[in-house]
Amino acid sequence: MSTEFFKRASESGFNKFSEIGQHMFNIIDNSKKLREDLKIVFTFHPEVDTDLLGQSTKKIKTIGKLVDEKYTLEASFPIVLYTEVSFDKDGIANYQFVTNRTQTCPAKSPEGMFENLRINNDLKVVIDAIDQYYK
User: Fold this and answer.
1) Per-residue confidence of the chain (135 residues) as pLDDT tens digits?
2) Burial class (CB in 10 A: 0-12, 13-18, 19+), 67
3) Cα dist. 96→4, 82, 111 in Å?
4) Which string of DSSP letters, residue by residue, matches 63-90?
5) Computed from CA positions of residues 55, 56, 60, 64, in that sequence, does the dihedral angle turn out positive or negative?
6) How would DSSP label each residue in 37-60?
7) If residue 132 lies in a helix (H) or strand (E), which one and from where to where?
8) Angle at 33 between CA 31 and CA 36, to 5 degrees
9) Minimal CB count within 10 Å: which of 37, 48, 68, 99?
10) Do 107 and 98 contact (CB within 8 A), yes or no?
């Protein structure tokens, strides 16, 4: 979405935001019509959304209010994983996927697909878990 936005940055008016949102919807909708043996992985950048009470939660970063207010991207997918980064005592980063909802993260996966709330940030592990779950 951000690539299309910047390509169209000189356009005035709000119509471009509706079109960008529609294009995103079309990509996701069309991906559901592809062969069932395909595993399609969408990657997004997260952003932190803070409500009026000051509580923060992650969400998928989007362009424009249309997608945020009218189309919840996370609802389009049966599995939504968020990356969580922690650092060891030497400052080395450790990346993990959060597999289910926490107070600040709207991750989700079918019950029993993953044993733990956090797993290694490894798409092969995720795809293997999906294959095993849907056998």
Assistant:
1) 888 888 998 988 888 888 988 999 999 999 999 998 899 999 999 999 888 888 888 999 988 788 888 888 899 999 999 999 999 999 999 999 999 999 999 999 999 999 999 999 999 999 999 999 998
2) buried
3) 30, 8, 19
4) SSHHHHHH--GGGG-S-B-EEEEEE-TT
5) positive
6) T--------EEEEE-TTS-EEEEE
7) helix 123-133
8) 95
9) 37
10) yes
Q: How far is CA 17 from the centre of its chain?
A: 20
Q: Which amino acid is at 123?
A: L
> Tokens at residue 35, please?
């062969």
pTM (two decimals): 0.84
DSSP-based three-state secondary structure for 8: coil
Q: Find, among 47, 42, 77, 50, the residue nearest to 62 by Cα.
A: 47
Residue owning tokens 């849907």? 134
